[in-house]
Every structure is written in C-alpha cells, then in structure tokens.
Amino acid sequence: MNGAKLFGLEEASWAERGLFVVTMSVMLALGGVGLARPSLLSRALTGAKGWILTYFGWWFILLGFVLLAAVFAFTASQYGRLRIGGPDAEPEFDLFSWLAMVFTVGFGASVLIWGVAEPISIVQHPPPEPAPVQGASLESMALAFMFIHEVFPGLAMWYLPVAIAFGIVVYTDGVGDYKISSMLAGVVGEDRIPGLYWLVDLAALIATIGGISTTLGFSAQTMSAILGRVFGLDATLLTYVVFALIGIVFLGDVWLGLRKGIRNAARATVILIGVAMAVLVVVGPSLYMLELSLDATGVWLSEMFRLTLYTAPNADGNWAANWTGFWWAWWAAWSIFVGSFVARVSKGRTIREMFAVLVVVPTVFTWIQHGLIGGWVLAPGYQGPVAEAMASAGNPAAIAKALQITPFGTVLAVLFVFIIAGYIITSLDSAVFMISAITLGDENPNPRNRAWWGGLLAVFGMMSLRLEEFSAIESLSVTMALPFSLFLLLVLYGSYVVARDSVRDDETANSESQQPSQQPAAQSAADD
C-alpha cells in the first residue's frame, strides 16, 4: 500500500494532497510548540486574541447585526423558496434526525460549559456602569446576555449565511468542487487570483481544527472534573479510558458513515439532553429556576437590540468586546464548518425550512436549556459555592461543584457524562466528515482519510488534560475569525448572485415551456 492510499489520498489532486500535508504539518507543529513551550504559545495566541477583541470587537458586533438583517431578508424573499440540491431534490434524513444532527454539531458541550460559566462570570464581574439594562437584577441581566450569545440572535447570525451560500452554490447551482472556497464562485473566479481558493481552504481547515480541538479539550476537562470531584475517581486515567471507548465508537461511525453513524449518535444525545433537563427540574431549585428564566426572558426580549449592540464606549476596559465580541468571533470561525455541514444534511430542504431547523426550533430548545441551567447555578445556595469553585479551579470545576451540592446530583452527573460523550462523538464525527470532504473536494470522503483527521483532533483534545496552557489554542479560532469575517460578507453576496441567476433561469425556462402550448391556441383563434 503506497503512502497516498494509506492516507486516503489516492484519488486526490496534487493541490488536495498539498492541502492535507500542509494542514497536518501546521497543526502538529502548533501542538509541538504547545507541549515544548506552553507559555510561549499561550502568550502569542492569547495576545493575538486580546488585540483583535480590543480593536475589532466592535466590528464583530456590527457584522453580526448586518448578517442577521441579511439572513432575514434572504429567507423572507423569493429566494427562500429555493431548494438545496435543486427543485427535484428529496430530503435525505427524517425531520428528527435532521434536527438532531444540526443541533448537536452546532453547539456541542458549550451548552453545559458556558451555560454554567457565563451567567456566574457576569454576576461576579458585571458590565460597567451605567448598566445596559436599568432595573433588572444582575442574575436576570446575566442570563439575558446568555440568551443573546447562545440562543438568539446568535443562532441566526453566523451559521445560516454559510449554510445558505454552501447549499445554493455547491448543491443547487453545482458550482465548483465540494470545498469552502467554492462559495466564492459568485464573486471571483478561481483563475482570477491564482492560489486564492487553495489559501481559503487552508485557512478554513486550520480555523475549524483549532475550534473543534478546543471544544474537545473543554469537554475532556469537564468530564474529568465530574468524574474526579463528584465520584472521587482517578479522573485523568478514567477520562483516558472513556476517550478510548469514544475512539472505538468513532471509528465504527467512520465506517458506518453519515446516515447511520452521525445520525444515530446525534439522536441519542438529544434524547439524553431532554432526560437530563427533566431530572434537573425535579432535583434542582425548581421554583427559582422557572421564575428567573421568565424574568430573564422578559429582559432578553424587551432589550434584545440594546444588548446585542452594547459596546459601553465611555467605560474603561473591554467588557462588551470580551463577551459579545468573543462570542461572535467564535461563532464566525465555527460557521465555516457548521454551515457547510448543515448544507450537506439539508439537501432536499428549502432555505426557509433550513431557517426553521437551524434557528427557530433550536432557539426554543436552547432557551429552555440555558434558562434551566442558568437558574440552577444562580439560585441562592448554589451561586456562591459555584462561583468560588470556578474562581479557584476553572469552568469544569464549577459544573462539578453544582452537581455536588444538588440533591441526587450523582444521577445528573451520570447523564452529563453521557451527554458530553455524545457531544464529543457527534462533534468529532461531523467535523472529521467535513474536514475530509473539504480537503478532498468529495461529498462522501473515504474512511481512511477521515480516520487520520479524527486521530489529529482526538490528540489535540486529549492534550488539554495534561497541559492547562494548551487551552490557549481557543484563541486560534478567534484570530482566524477576523479575516473570515470579510469572507462571510463575500459568500453572502455570492450566494445572492447565484440565487438571483438561478431564479431568473427558472423563470425563463418556465416561460419557454409555456409558449408551445400557447401557440396552437393562438393559431386557432387566428383561423376563426
């Protein structure tokens, strides 16, 4: 077996092989620096993230608002009726499977990790005076910001523009290869600027790998904290064992493919989330959770534009940039991978259907989740211990502490471990599927190539268990998001151009098809 076949590159072009080798080399080199000189990597990446958020935090806030308006206009217009894959395309997945895959790949364990960490952090370190919302409690305002960042409008701003562009350009119009760079087809031709498409795909792969590696790392740290602090086990060793089992399941999913592997893992994870939220309502501070959720929902809905565009220009520091700016940059980097995956599993669906399954339904689902989780950790008797744990040992310790002080928390902890494992499997599966597809330009990449990418991501995720500074790699996604912010505007405009031409072609074809049937009638009238 030659090297190309070993890596699943036997049918790849030289450019695609180069993309694989360069991306692997860059990420492995970055990981090597992280292990050999963790402080150097931490300073470099964290410094880059800090500079971007300080000077361009406002840009991400503005861009998010522009993309939100564009997405609503696109969906409500005649282009909202366009079907991904063409007018005769049939849906590949049933409604529940489709929704489950979109939800689990779009959020991951961040619902648990940041669902605890952000409301607690904002209460402990609130926005500078004057407060963006007068008369609201700190708890309600903190949870309202959580709704802004992870429920709506965050859901509609970032993933959908890429999903629309990828679906229309690659599937409906059939322009270019199955690559991120193909979305530029409506704006600039591949031969116009030699090497541009290849560089775009390289940057997209690095940003995606950086983002998914960080999420896997956070998930591993959270799982380790729960196993160690709640159950008193040898957390690191057991987490390695759990990851090994996840790896076996992942390899099985690689060979099962998109339809059976990722779909079934996503469906199981969504069911577990529903069960866990039901248990939380029973064992948690239920009355406070429900009352705070409703109060925060009122703040969120009544002050949505205020909170979304909040920048605190007269205050010292960069509170808004470090929260809203960070979230929008993170979503922007993730939008490349998630948006293209959503388009892949949405063939046969219209743009409006995709809007419903990517925005409307998840908005309700995540609103319930974050309302319950936020109300749980902000409740009297919970907030103080959770905040203390987070200040001393980080976000994973905060989740573990909340479970420790909750009645029947061990039951909830078991469910959380399975949910995190489900998120890891679905995130790893879908990320590897899209990374391999983008590398090879193939809608259904071969298992061998996907397995190599999976190995790289798993290694990056596991590193965080032994190297705390390696979490600084999260800054890579934020750093890559700055140039990709312009890319998002370009692909949104390009998708409009392709959609406009597609609608015009359909109208022309329809009018031409009607002409022959009209001619006999016209001739008959002339004969009379």
UniProtKB/TrEMBL annotation:
<dbReference type="InterPro" id="IPR000060">
    <property type="entry name" value="BCCT_transptr"/>
</dbReference>
<feature type="transmembrane region" description="Helical">
    <location>
        <begin position="479"/>
        <end position="499"/>
    </location>
</feature>
<keyword id="KW-0812">Transmembrane</keyword>
<keyword id="KW-0813">Transport</keyword>
<protein>
    <submittedName>
        <fullName>BCCT transporter</fullName>
    </submittedName>
</protein>
<feature type="transmembrane region" description="Helical">
    <location>
        <begin position="270"/>
        <end position="290"/>
    </location>
</feature>
<dbReference type="GO" id="GO:0022857">
    <property type="term" value="F:transmembrane transporter activity"/>
</dbReference>
<feature type="transmembrane region" description="Helical">
    <location>
        <begin position="56"/>
        <end position="74"/>
    </location>
</feature>
<feature type="transmembrane region" description="Helical">
    <location>
        <begin position="355"/>
        <end position="379"/>
    </location>
</feature>
<feature type="transmembrane region" description="Helical">
    <location>
        <begin position="18"/>
        <end position="36"/>
    </location>
</feature>
<dbReference type="GO" id="GO:0005886">
    <property type="term" value="C:plasma membrane"/>
</dbReference>
<feature type="transmembrane region" description="Helical">
    <location>
        <begin position="156"/>
        <end position="175"/>
    </location>
</feature>
<keyword id="KW-0472">Membrane</keyword>
<feature type="transmembrane region" description="Helical">
    <location>
        <begin position="411"/>
        <end position="438"/>
    </location>
</feature>
<feature type="transmembrane region" description="Helical">
    <location>
        <begin position="95"/>
        <end position="117"/>
    </location>
</feature>
<dbReference type="Pfam" id="PF02028">
    <property type="entry name" value="BCCT"/>
</dbReference>
<keyword id="KW-1133">Transmembrane helix</keyword>
<feature type="compositionally biased region" description="Low complexity">
    <location>
        <begin position="513"/>
        <end position="528"/>
    </location>
</feature>
<feature type="region of interest" description="Disordered">
    <location>
        <begin position="507"/>
        <end position="528"/>
    </location>
</feature>
<feature type="transmembrane region" description="Helical">
    <location>
        <begin position="196"/>
        <end position="218"/>
    </location>
</feature>
<feature type="transmembrane region" description="Helical">
    <location>
        <begin position="238"/>
        <end position="258"/>
    </location>
</feature>
<feature type="transmembrane region" description="Helical">
    <location>
        <begin position="325"/>
        <end position="343"/>
    </location>
</feature>
<keyword id="KW-1003">Cell membrane</keyword>
<feature type="transmembrane region" description="Helical">
    <location>
        <begin position="450"/>
        <end position="467"/>
    </location>
</feature>
